[in-house]
Design goal:
This protein is mainly alpha-helical and 248 residues long. 70% of the residues lie in helices and 0% in strands. The protein folds into two domains: 164 residues, no CATH class; 62 residues. It is elongated and about 75 Å long.
Amino acid sequence: MKTPPESSANTQLFTYLSILSKDEFKRLKDFILSPVFNSNASLLALYETIKPFFVKGNLAAWNKEAAYSKIYPSRSYNSGSMRSLMSELTDVIGAMLAFRNRKNGDGNLMPDELRFLLEICDISALESDFQKKAAAYQLVLDAETVQDYDFYFRKTILLTLQQRQHAKALEDVEETYNIHQKRLESIVLYFLILALDAYRCVGQMNYTRQADYSFNFLFKKEVEQHLEENKEYYKNTSATVLLSNSRY
């Protein structure tokens, strides 16, 4: 593999990483602790592992055993675990892009999807406050002994309130997501590419070559498609340099 030119360290994509502190990185915890991720420990460890290698421009030092030992220093190397880590990272960026593509469909979200997006944008407190108010109002309705006109009128108010709150939550999610979308995508995409290079053993395939080729070929296509769709944004970034200099 060729070493990316020094100029790649000055790109917008690398800038995102070089200025990111661990505390700032933990802002991704609500996203990482989503249904597609069990813990942020592995990604935080990967962050600590990637940064010094890229700063030195020493990508040739990455091989799958070395990368794995740095991510999991107390474990013996396991190719299945490394593959699982890459698969989880692929799921993460896929979930992030799913929201961006929501407008291409019917625009409707399932309850679990809405809850997931609320967690991503860290506005779950808003939803929690509303649920408390709605529950309190429901208690008032349940206490009614006579279901007269006033009861149904108040029931209608509650349903309307719920509908409006759902719409407001979606608006807040979309606004917050749009603000951070490119930064989040850049960070995760960068991790995906570096993890892929680590697992790929920097061109030194062994007996798992056929399985590696199949997995890496499909993964590379996904990344290339994402880069093509966002080529103006990623133009001359280190991500593009890494892909163009990788051997698959």
